[in-house]
Structure formats: structure tokens, C-alpha cells
């Protein structure tokens, strides 16, 4: 699979979601089509009890699509086979890149978010390509300002060899 993918990872409270929201907005403004995979640590449900789609899924459907004119959602039950990142990547079509929140143990390039205030150890592995932080660290990896989304977008574009896309219809 030739999709461009990079993770924004780090411990809870390190600013992953805040940073991703800013990065996604800047990439969108540059006409990139961005897909996102977000890791949830707990059993999650996006469907609400009492809604028809929830009732149909709970009655035994292993896949449910809820659709309107502007969007659709696919809900897939995977009780016998936990999802993995590769399977999730295959769900994306017509995107220029996939940003992953979390999945820090996956073997994909990742930018690690780290803040002094969280007082957690710095997580790094062989797939860490940079650290987005709010103070200088003792590392040979590129250090990005976690509060400078433009700098991080430029790094991502360089890291993934992304050219500015043509404007998509």
C-alpha cells in the first residue's frame, strides 16, 4: 500500500488532539485531503441507543452503514479479530495522507508529542522521526515547536514527500 501515513503519538495529556486539529486545518487550507485514524483505549460506540442504526447493529448485523447526503459512517463489529492499523488503512480512499492519533507502538513514522507539564517520560522508538515539544530536549531527532502547527505541517510535507495538490473538486 502506497499511502502516505504518519502518526502523532505520545502519552495522554501531551496535546495530540489539539495539535492534530491545527495540522488538519492547515493541510485542508493547502487543499490536501486528509484521513484520520484515532486510537481509543476503551470500548467505544459512535451509535446511540434508541436510534434505528443502533438497534439494527445490536440485533446482529456485523456491518452497518448510516448515510445521509453529506456523509456516511461504516460501523463494523470485530469481536473475533481485533482491528489493526493495516486493516484500518485499507478503509481510506481518495486521501492524500493519513494522520494517525496514538498507535505509538506501530511501525510507522511518528512525531511524538511531549510537554514539560505532563511530567511523563519521553517515549521514542526507532520509528520516531521528530519530537514536538515545548522545551529543549537532549536528542538528535528534529525538535518541533508543539505550539507551531505551520512548522509541523512543513515537516510532515517534507517527511512524506508531499507536493501541494491540485485543488480537488
Task: Write a brief caption for the model.
With 169 residues, the chain is an alpha/beta fold.
Give me the secondary-structure topology.
Elements: E1 5-9, H1 16-29, E2 34-38, H2 52-58, E3 63-67, E4 72-76, H3 85-89, E5 97-101, E6 110-114, E7 128-133, E8 143-145, H4 149-159
Parallel strand pairs: 1-5, 1-6, 2-5, 6-7, 7-8
Antiparallel strand pairs: 3-4
Quaternary form = single chain
* Relative helix content: 10-25%
Task: Quote the average pLDDT.
Answer: 87
Strand order of the largest sheet: 2-5-1-6-7-8
Q: Please report the distance between the alpha carbons of the first and last residues.
A: 24 Å
Residue runs with pLDDT of under 50 for 5 or more positions: none
Largest sheet: 6 strands, parallel
Order of helices and strands: EHEHEEHEEEEH
**Gross geometry:** globular
Radius of gyration, rounded? 18 Å
Number of strands: 8
The amount of beta strand, in percent, is 15-25%
Task: Characterise this structure.
This protein has 169 residues and is of the alpha/beta class. 22% of the residues lie in helices and 23% in strands. It is built from 4 helices and 8 strands. It has helices at 16-29, 52-58, 85-89, 149-159; strands at 5-9, 34-38, 63-67, 72-76, 97-101, 110-114, 128-133, 143-145. A 6-stranded parallel beta sheet has the order 2-5-1-6-7-8. Strands 3-4 form a two-stranded antiparallel ribbon. A hairpin with a 4-residue loop joins β3 and β4 (72-76). α1 (16-29) packs across α4. The longest helix has 14 residues, at 16-29. The protein is globular. The two termini are 24 Å apart. The model has no long low-confidence stretch (mean pLDDT 87).
Amino acid at each position: 500500500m502506497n499511502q502516505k501515513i504518519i502518526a502523532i503519538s505520545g502519552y495522554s495529556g501531551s496535546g495530540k488532539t489539539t495539535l492534530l486539529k491545527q495540522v488538519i486545518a492547515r493541510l485542508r487550507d493547502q487543499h490536501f485531503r486528509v484521513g484520520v485514524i484515532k486510537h481509543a483505549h476503551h470500548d467505544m460506540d459512535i451509535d446511540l441507543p434508541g436510534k434505528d442504526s443502533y438497534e439494527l447493529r445490536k440485533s446482529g448485523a456485523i456491518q452497518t452503514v448510516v448515510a445521509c447526503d453529506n456523509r456516511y459512517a461504516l460501523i463494523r463489529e470485530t469481536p473475533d479479530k481485533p482491528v489493526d492499523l493495516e486493516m484500518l488503512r485499507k478503509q481510506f480512499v481518495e486521501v492524500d495522507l493519513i494522520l494517525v492519533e496514538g498507535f505509538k507502538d506501530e511501525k510507522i513514522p511518528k512525531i511524538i508529542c511531549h510537554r514539560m507539564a505532563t511530567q511523563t517520560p519521553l517515549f521514542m522508538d526507532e520509528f520516531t522521526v521528530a519530537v514536538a515539544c515545548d522545551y529543549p530536549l537532549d536528542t538528535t531527532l528534529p525538535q518541533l515547536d508543539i505550539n507551531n502547527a505551520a512548522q509541523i505541517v512543513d515537516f510532515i510535507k517534507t517527511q512524506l514527500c508531499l507536493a501541494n495538490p491540485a485543488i480537488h473538486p
